[in-house]
Specification:
mainly alpha, two-stranded antiparallel ribbon
Length: 682
């Protein structure tokens, strides 16, 4: 059967809050649209009036949230025109210019970020960050007269812009390394007691910039670890501090190779403590409490404002309302060539007004838990061998291809090189596997109801779902990496299987969510592989699995369809070893044959054939079921079409690795037909 290699998280390409990171293509038609606001707004950037320049930048930051307007700005050289305003003499202009570029990078996607780096936006951005850093200590009471903008506000927008660029551009990370911006970010982190928003933004960016960054390692010294450890060991109890500590833990994990062995032991324990605390918090209880606290506070402020005859603009939240209109379903499930799962994040300028304290706390809680789970995922699979090294560690007969064309390794038999005995013990001692399993449950009904009814809290729904999906991916890696005895042996695995079954069959809506489907099918596939290898009875009936796999097989996401077929194959091969399972095997066999003959994607067809080979490879029950469904004649009938389609579509549609696997499948199909013919002659 197909084998599952542990997933690894890459830093986000853009947002858990839901904005699409789909690259924006420049088109002449759009850029020349007479109704486009780009020309007028870009012209205003040259105004001698600071107020006009500020207005233009603020307007651009709002307009580009409508992604169809972005090509018009890019065609008119917007980046080169806005970039110099990062060093404008007005702090207000600096902040809104950084906000405009930040939104352009977030809404435009990776291609726009690369364009911005090529347009040399990093030169004024780096200079701005250094100026801000130098001005922190003298800016606390020196806001520009008549304005609310501070140096730290400007720095926060600049840091978020750099964060976006580093997520999408290796050139931006290289500039981060070469310009010595690490010191600037340490200074921002140290401002956490004065400006938590800035510290969290800097922590996010540092978490991104430190990942797989060997060049930066040369700049890491005791001062870097000192700042991160001071945050890690802080005792503040707010949820924003929980997020800050979690991000610091992520950066320390990325930089762990620079620590001495003695330091590593202490640091790993502190990391596990931080992650465990984050996951131990009950979002289902805390989110309703925060919502009620906000409602009470806002009601009191509204009454106070009415009595004084004034209108408090802070009570409105138009930014979130705009987000509700602009948010699109994000395309989350892309995978990087190295097997890491790409994540996306929504980074919209001024999305949450600062007075929405409780909403910010709720967002911080969910972000901390999502980040914690992503760090744990990488703990179970970081520093893994390259694809070539994986192939050398498995025989050519066992080597197979994942849905996305990456080579896979039999996770039930292979323990990742990175999971040292010490780290393994630390994670177990902090109950990490149990906490991950808990987070894999559906969000609480109370939290879902509150967020569904309140427009300003509604976007947290997606964040709660994403925490669950990250937990399922994390569970997949834990199952693939840990000895089953540490999971409670056979009874423990059956309990996990019951848990996953309850997730699969308790919500029809969940089965329509591709991200959830990918996460739950990966975890279920890994679990069933382990149980089958140890002859542990499975808890789902064939009819339940058929219902689930029917839904998953119709999903557009290739990895979900392949996982579903693998699950059918694993289940069928286990049933073939039991008595009186002919009817169930016929059910599974017919489903696999139907997909192998009719699916338009050869990778899916190949996986269906592979599953058929496993299910009907041996045993009296399999032989009887195979005859009843005319397996031999069906395979003979599809063989010419499979070969012809492989010759016709292969090179233009599939990668070299996929073609190699598909060609092996063609050979295996021929061999399996010969095997069935020999059985028939007996």
């Amino acid at each position: 059967m197909g084998k599952t290699k542990n997933n690894k998280f890459k830093r986000p390409s853009f947002s858990p809050d839901g904005l699409s990171a789909t690259p924006v293509k420049q088109t002449v038609e759009e850029s020349e649209d007479e109704d486009s606001p780009a020309a007028e707004l870009l012209e205003k950037l040259q105004s001698p009036s600071a107020d006009v320049r500020e207005y233009a930048c603020a307007s651009i930051s709002r307009v580009v949230q409508q992604t169809q307007t972005i090509p018009g700005f890019l065609q008119r050289d917007a980046v080169r025109k806005i970039g110099p305003l990062l060093l404008d003499r007005s702090l207000a202009v600096r902040e809104t210019a950084a906000g405009a570029l930040r939104n352009l990078s977030a809404c435009g996607g990776p291609e726009v970020c690369e364009d911005m780096v090529r347009e040399d936006v990093l030169t004024p951005l780096s200079a701005l960050l250094r100026e801000c850093c130098a001005g922190f200590d003298v800016s606390s009471s020196s806001t520009v007269k008549g304005h609310k903008h501070t140096v730290e506000d400007v720095a926060n927008e600049a840091v978020n812009l750099l964060w976006n660029l580093c997520e999408s551009s290796s050139r931006a990370v290289s500039v981060f390394n070469k310009t010595g911006l690490l010191d600037v970010f340490l200074h921002c982190l140290q401002r956490h007691s004065q400006n938590m928003e800035l510290a969290i933004s800097a922590a996010h960016c540092l978490h991104t910039a430190t990942e797989e960054n060997a060049e930066l390692m040369r700049s890491v010294n005791a001062a870097v670890f000192g700042v991160l450890e001071n945050i890690l060991f802080s005792t503040h109890t707010s949820l924003e501090y929980t997020l800050l500590r979690t991000l610091a833990a992520g950066s320390l994990w990325n930089l762990k190779s620079s620590l001495s062995p003695a330091q590593q032991s202490q640091t790993l324990t502190a990391l596990a403590t931080t992650l465990s605390h984050s996951l131990s918090l009950d979002a289902g209880q805390l989110i309703p409490e925060l919502w009620r606290a906000e409602s009470a506070r806002l009601s009191k402020e509204t009454t106070s404002a009415a009595e004084s005859g004034r209108t408090d603009e802070r009570l409105a939240c138009p930014e979130v309302e705009e987000m509700e209109e602009d948010v699109r379903d994000e395309k989350m499930n892309g995978r990087k060539p190295n097997g890491r799962i790409s994540k996306t994040r929504n980074d919209i300028y001024d999305l949450l007004p600062r007075d929405r304290l409780e909403l910010r706390e709720a967002k911080a809680l969910l972000s901390a838990q999502q980040t914690s789970l992503e760090i744990i995922v990488n703990m179970y699979c970081s520093d893994e061998p390259s694809d070539d090294e994986w192939e050398e560690m498995s025989s050519s007969d066992e080597s197979e291809m994942c849905a996305d064309g990456r080579s896979d390794t039999n996770s039930s038999l292979f323990s990742p090189l990175c999971l040292s005995a010490e780290l393994h013990t630390i994670l177990l001692n902090h109950n990490i596997p149990q906490q991950v399993l808990k987070k894999a449950e559906f969000p609480s009904a109370a939290a879902l109801e509150i967020c569904s009814k309140d427009l300003t809290w509604k976007y947290l729904l997606k964040k709660m779902q994403r925490v669950q999906c990250r937990a399922l991916t994390c569970l997949h890696n834990i199952l693939s990496s840990m000895d089953t005895e540490f999971l409670g042996g056979a009874s423990g695995l059956q309990a996990v299987a019951q848990h996953l079954s309850s997730l699969v069959f308790s919500s029809e809506e969940a089965l329509k969510d591709e991200e959830f489907l990918e996460a739950v099918t990966s975890a279920l596939r890994s679990l069933l592989q382990i149980m089958a290898s140890k002859n542990i009875p499975q808890c789902m009936t064939p009819h339940q699995l058929m219902s689930f796999c029917e839904t998953a097989s119709s999903c557009e996401l290739l990895s979900v369809r392949v996982n579903a077929l693998a699950i059918l194959g694993i289940t069928g091969s286990s049933l073939a070893k039991e008595k009186n399972t002919t009817d169930s095997l016929q059910l599974i066999g017919n489903a696999l044959l139907n997909i192998a003959m009719k699916d338009s994607n050869l990778v899916v067809c190949g996986e269906a054939l592979d599953a058929l080979f496993d299910v009907f490879a041996d045993g009296d029950e399999a032989e009887s079921a195979g005859k009843n469904i005319n397996l031999l004649s069906s395979l003979k009938a599809l063989q010419p079409g499979f070969r012809a389609k492989l010759r016709k579509e292969g090179k233009g549609k599939y990668s070299p690795d996929q073609l190699c696997v598909l060609d092996n499948m063609r050979i295996n199909l021929k061999r399996f037909i010969s095997y069935l013919e020999n059985l028939q002659r007996k």
